Amino acid sequence: MLKAVAVDTNTGTGTIIPPSQYLQDTTLTQRSYHIFINSLKSKMTKKEYNRVLYHFLQRHNLSIERTDEFLNLPVKEIESMVIDDITTMQQKEKLSVSAVQILTASIQHLCSMNDVLLNWRKIRKFINTDVPKHNDEAYTHDDVRKLLQISDIRMKTVFLVLASTGIRIDALHDIKLRNLTKIDSHNLYKLIVYAGYNEEYLVFTSIECAAIIDEYLDYRKRSGEILNGDSYLIREAFDNNDIKQVREKSRQVTTSTLRNMIHNHLVKAGIRKPRAGHDK
């Protein structure tokens, strides 16, 4: 997959720009993007629509810095791009209906706010709503037991946080340590979900989940990671023999990566069937 890159004209080198950077630095973007993002009221909606648009444009060899170019394409070409993505997301990537609907909502908002009129009635005919809902379904006690048996400490933390709090996967990947408070009198954690957004709310972990969180964070500290309030609860995997990787590459796990990790474990545990053409 292509990445949006900021290029230093003196050295010719580039650095990957994460989706969130466009929300923080308006000099990177064009007027059509400003209209798109500033017409959204909810911070959470801004973040999600921005993320979806970022990946959509990447898949078509474009970037958020080039939204004007995208919107100047022939209407039929834009419609074909959206329909192709819908088909790929559902038939190849086996993503949920809600993921597809977020894509169409984001692109429709970008187009409509910039007076580009697409045939959305036709486009939505390609969304197959008659598919199983997998991604955030609740796990049974037996499911959790099977998953914990095959999981490392990081994935045990993932599954127990999801199972004990009921939060969504897209909320888990965003939780930082500053959003956790240990309640020692009850041996559990209080979590702030969607911290700083209108959608913010509180949840509490189970005692078993709190113990696994402590074990996971202790493992990271013993491996050399310096934890602080900005550290993510779930970080990317690392080689604990590489101290530079442990300390300097403590990055947030993306939602898509997290979903793939969970799906692979569900398949391995025999809870979910493999996706055709994807899982071995």
Topology at a glance:
Layout: E1 5-7, E2 14-16, H1 19-24, H2 31-38, H3 43-59, H4 67-71, H5 75-92, H6 97-113, H7 120-124, H8 141-149, H9 153-165, H10 169-172, E3 180-183, E4 188-193, E5 201-204, H11 207-222, H12 243-248, H13 255-268
Antiparallel strand pairs: 1-2, 3-4, 4-5
Give me the strand/helix succession: EEHHHHHHHHHHEEEHHH
Low-confidence segments, given as residue ranges, are: 1-16
**What's the helical proportion of residues?**
40-55%
Q: Outline, from the CA principal axes?
A: globular
Biggest beta sheet summary: 3 strands, antiparallel
Mean pLDDT: 84
Strand content: 5-15%
Distance between the termini: 22 Å
Count the beta strands.
Answer: 5
**How many helices?**
13
From the helix content, strand content and strand pairing, which structural class follows?
A: mainly alpha
CA radius of gyration = 20 Å
Order the strands across the largest sheet as they lie in space. Answer: 3-4-5
Question: What does this entry look like structurally?
Answer:
With 280 residues, the chain is mainly α. The protein has 13 helices and five strands. α3 packs across α6 and α5 (75-92) runs antiparallel to α6.
Write a concise synopsis of the structure shown:
This protein has 280 residues and is mainly alpha-helical.
Notable features of this structure?
mainly alpha, two-stranded antiparallel ribbon, 13 helices, disordered N terminus
